[in-house]
Queue: 2 jobs
Job 1
Amino acid sequence: ATPTALMVGTGRGAQLGILIKGPEVLESTRRVDTVVLDKTGTVTTGRMTLQDVYVTEDADEKEVLRLAGAVEHASEHPVARAVAAGAEERSEMGVPPAEGWGRAGVPLPSASAFENVPGLGVRGTVEGHEVLVGRARLLEEAGVTLPDELAALKTRAEEDGRTAVAVAWDGVARGVLTVADAVKETSAEAVRELRALGLTPVLLTGDNRTVAASVARRVGIDDACVHAEVLPRDKVEVIKRLQAEGRTVAMVGDGVNDAAALATADLGLAMGTGTDAAIEAGDLTLVRGDLRVAADAIRLSRKTLSTIK
Ligand code: ADP
Ligand code: MG
């Protein structure tokens, strides 16, 4: 490929809403046969809202929301934002809004000893209670079991495509909160376009298996191509395993959690709507965060490189 033709390709990319790090990127784009898609924020909007609050018989709904919201307040994770905002909005204390308070005017208590456990959840101390919010595995690792009735409600929500997180404090599970996030309107079409280009779409997420399968079904990704409950540090391993099978892998992601996988993939595509860490790690940026543009990028590189021949 001559440098001039590649420059034309990058210019056309900018018009389509694709920022290309360097002209040589188009070369690797052409050989891609597998496209790994992150779920939250890539296939889905990533704008989650609090849906259900399930609590055990002896726990108080408002208390569960208040303590969970207090710990999540310190986290930037989409699940955390939904829980903290929902806790502030739903509190019924009826106090008029004041500076620095939540939208409904209700302050959440502050958390100390906050700790973010990547891919699992958060923990912190609120009003003297040791609070955990996250996956069932986070609780299990702390020796806390989810009672059957909460586990059943959690599974039902997940079958429905909602992400469910457990809340525990002082070593006892107290409730389950569910948050939902919509599949982007353009995702199913994007998956169809990627398939039409002969690429195999794969879904990669730290979220629950049941939720992941539900999203995959809605956008047209095969069940066998879903990798769920993958810890952030293991996302790279999934990419490497696909490469070891002889595939040339593109990865599309938006999160801090995706940065290493984006850098490991043969081609990393970052959502322009995502984190700086993802954008820095990617070879290409899809400026508007529209997944269909990933297909445009592949098409553009194939065309650019064939006109040069
Ligand atoms: P994804 O790969 O979809 O972007 P993550 O790896 O960030 O997901 O998170 C995986 C799962 O870990 C979430 O679906 C959630 O169940 C749990 N989790 C992560 N962070 C938090 C948090 N701050 N609060 C509650 N749960 C969390
Ligand atoms: Mg994401």
Job 2
Amino acid sequence: MTNGITLLDALAQTLGADAILHSEADLAGYIEDWRGRYKGPALCVALPGDTRQVSEIVRLCREHGTPVLPQGGNTSLCGGAVPAAEGRPPVIVNLSRMRRIRRVDAANNSMEVEAGCVLAAVQAAAAAEGRLYPVSLGAEGSCQIGGTIATNAGGTGVLRYGNTRDNVLGLEVVLPDGAIWNGLTALRKNNTGYDLKHLFIGAEGTMGIVTAAVLKLHPLPTAHAVAWLAPESPQAALDILGLFQRACGSRLSAFEMIDSNQLDVVMAHVPGRKNPLADAHPWHVLVELSDTGDDAALQDLLQRILEQASERGLLRDAVVANSGAQRAALWEVRHSVSEGNKKAGVGLTTDTAVPVSAVPRFIDEATQAVRRLVPGLPVLIVAHLGDGNVHFIPFFTFDAWNALPGRDAMAASLRRAVNDVADALGGTFSAEHGVGRSSLAEMAHYKSPVELAMMRAVKQAFDPDHLFNPGRLLP
Ligand code: FAD
């Protein structure tokens, strides 16, 4: 309470009562994460309609010393977007009402959007102008641009287009003191000092609230060729990747690998999904080529590379999609892994990246490492192989998980064992999901004291009261 008025009352007066949710029923969808693993109390959810209102919320929270938790689509896979069970309940600032596409500038290959725009809506608005916004991931129907920026999201297009950081030209941010920074430049060259937008990309809401962004667009591909392959092994998959890179250059737009355990989970738990190939195989790759022009030339190129791979003994089987519907069906299998895993049991998802050339060794050594801890434990592999990002998932059925003695400690040990293997190969424990709450211990363990000190100094300069997303990102 400040000057006799509660923060809730002040927020309701400023934003209007309909923009403040605080009943238990209204809060339910905002205070628990997608997988039901993290949950904590919030003072309320504020739903601002514009940047000025975001700034007012932040100023009021600051006056009352109340933490601020920025939230987008709440699809975080590391517990980053919901309150902690302990500590002072925050005000959740959910950006879903700020979903205006402000402008598409086709000639400049850019678009300006509000942070609450759902990623799929941004892709569609770009496509309507013959342009591509290339960040693409399984949660694109619900995650927001602001959330993808705050987590520097990756996904399936990184191989060709880079991650979110590579596709942001400018930002508008409300800082922890309530000031609004208008950095909405649409320039591709601007060497005028520190490039401040990068401080907010991947900051997971610890440095301010992203309210709008200028995004980089690309020509919309009109030709596609997609195939589902069964390589002999992860090393064979890498060799096939090399064949594609040599022959296709930047036309190679995705190269995704899953193992048979992961495919089995998808087929068993997601209705309508089946093995695209006639027989069972240990490894599966989805490859996509895209370009301007028409499909025929790309399909020919794809077929030629598959023949080469087959002649070299790298490939057990392959099927090429012959229509848009078949392409979509192959992608649906790939995009169903999170849904399947959620229904099938408890997956201890890791988010490692290693140099692409080290992926086969990583998979081998990480499998041995987890099986030393839990003999025979099934592992699921989902890899954005083209950029070395492997979701290596030690997996328990619900029954096995419930029967596991000391399971939290065991989960931590299994993750650490996998991350140690990645670290020894020059890798990281978080390639694209971020740190959130689930990887705080890994931050403390793997980041050097010098790097942590620099991060803390930056945080201190922007948020000296530590009100923004406390308990996330920085241990
Ligand atoms: P939230 O989950 O709401 O928030 C994530 C973090 O960003 C939190 O720390 C939050 O405080 C902060 N934040 C949110 N909005 C703002 C804002 N406007 N300003 C400042 N901070 C903000 N991720 C990948 O990288 N690649 C994938 O392939 C991928 N696949 C996924 C598939 C599924 C099925 C699911 C459920 C998730 C997947 N994710 C993936 C994770 C997730 O979708 C991404 O991290 C996404 O970028 C989060 O966006 P969001 O809007 O849901 O953010």
